[in-house]
Amino acid sequence: MKVMTIYAHPADTITNCGGTLALHAKRGDEVVALILTHGGRLHPNKYAEEWRKDNPDESLLHAGLEEIALNKRRELERAAQTIGISKLILLDYDDNYSVVNEEIVDRIAEEVSKERPDIVICDFPMNTAFHNPHTIATQMAFAGLSKVSLFLKNLDGQAEYQVKQIFLTSLPVSPIDGLSLYGIRNDVFIDISSVVGEKIKAMDEFKSQGYSGLFARKLLESYNGEYGRAAGVNFAEGFYRVYNETHSHLPLTEAAQKSDLLMRHLSYSTMSIREMFPLT
What we know:
43% helix, single chain, globular, 7 strands, 12 helices, 15% strand, 280 residues, alpha/beta
C-alpha cells in the first residue's frame, strides 16, 4: 500500500497524522509526503522569542526568508526520517497564498499521477467562508485529485487515476457517536499508543516554531489523548473518510470486539507522556 499526505506546511503531516504514518511505515507500506509550501512565514516562534530578548542573536534577527525556509526543510527531513516517511515532495511555494492557485493544483495533479497512492490524507476544510491556508490547501488537493481522474492517455500523455480513499484530519468536532451532530464526526480512529515516542521525537525537531519540548508532550496528552478517550485507547489520531466503503459483510473491527465500555478507562489511563518521554 502507498499512503500520500498532502498538507500546506512542513509540520502539518507530523502533527496531524505522524503516528498513523509511523505505523504504516513499520508494516512496510510506502509513505510519501507532499508539502505545498516552505512554511517560512508561518509560526516564526524562534525568531519572535529572539526579538524579545535584551541581548538577541543578531543572526536570527536578520535571518531572511530563504534561511528560515531552509531551516524548516531540515527540521522536516529529520522528522520524516524518525516517522519513516520514505519520500518528501516539497513544492516550496510561498505560504502567503489566499485563494486556490491553479499552478499548485497542476503540480498536485502531476505528483499524484506519478506516485499513484492508494490513500491520500489531508486537512478537513474547516471553513470556506474566510481565509484559512489549510482549507485552501485541501481545496487545491481535491482539485488536483479531480484533475488526475480526468486525464486521458491520448490527450494528456498519462492515464487517469483514482485514489481508493481520502482521509481528512483536524475535523473540528469530536463526538463519539453518529447521532450527536447528525453524523459529523471522525469515523476512523488509529491507535498510535505504540508509536507516541516516534511522534514526540519527530515534533521535537520543529524547534523553530515552538513545537518541541513541552508543546509536543502537551499536544499528545490533550489532542491525541482526547481522540484516545473516544477510541478507548491511550492515544489515537482521528480521521474522517471521504468515500463510502463496500464490504462483503457488515464490518466489525478487532478493537470493537475487544471493547469493554465499563473497563476501558483503566487501559486508557496506563500511559503518562511526561513520565515516559521527559525533557532532556
